[in-house]
Amino acid sequence: MKDINFFKPYQGKSKEKINFKRYIYGTIIIVAILITGTFAVNTVKIIMLNRSIEDYNNKLSASEIQEQLKEAEDVNKQITVLKQYDSALTDVAISVKNRDNVSDILLMDISSTVPSELSFKNLDIVDNTITIKGVATNRSAVAELKHNLSSLSKMQSVYVNSIDSSGAVEGEYSFDIKCVLKDVE
């Protein structure tokens, strides 16, 4: 004969509650273990990083490294100063190159204006001023040179400073001509 159990429906519900509680507690325990594990791993990493930071700081505070650091800073300062000088010199070089009024072309133009009765002793170029000293066989050759120089497009003004016969060989005239070049920008 079989026994009839009237409490069977109630016992199944309590077993379901116990199984549900086991799942919840199991999940909570797993999450707690994960949190504790990551906390432990991160704490160990932080401790190791702090130790390596201390090691690096100790190495950096060593006298050898400090001397090398000072030398490196001095070299960097010198490099900075040299770069400034380099840029300043580059600017000067560019402005000098742009201001180069006297060229081969100008000298060839001056040479083409010289009459055959005349020869140069000295040709000085200072800034935009050309001073020509020489000798001529007659005064008209000096006048012709002045006229020819005045006709050059690069000349702003040309004038004869002096024509003198006393300092030259007999029958020759020494002269001094000053030419001012146009400012070319």
Tell me the radius of gyration.
50 Å
Strand content: 15-25%
CATH topology of the domain at 104-181: Gyrase A, domain 2
Helical content stands at 55-70%
CATH class of the domain at 104-181: Alpha Beta
Counted by DSSP, the helix tally is 4
Average pLDDT figure: 84
CATH H level, superfamily name of the domain at 104-181: General secretion pathway protein M, EpsM
Strand order of the largest sheet: 1-2-4-3
Strand tally, please? 4
Poorly predicted tracts of residues: none
| Tertiary shape | rod-shaped
What would you call the structural class?
alpha+beta
Termini separation (Å)?
128 Å
Order of helices and strands: HHHEEHEE
Q: From the 3D coordinates, which CATH architecture of the domain at 104-181 would you assign?
A: 2-Layer Sandwich
Transmembrane segments: 23-41
Protein name: PilN domain-containing protein
Keywords: Coiled coil, Membrane, Transmembrane, Transmembrane helix
Coiled coil: 53-82
Write the layout of secondary structure elements.
Layout: H1 8-60, H2 63-98, H3 104-112, E1 118-126, E2 129-136, H4 139-150, E3 155-164, E4 173-181
Antiparallel strand pairs: 1-2, 2-4, 3-4
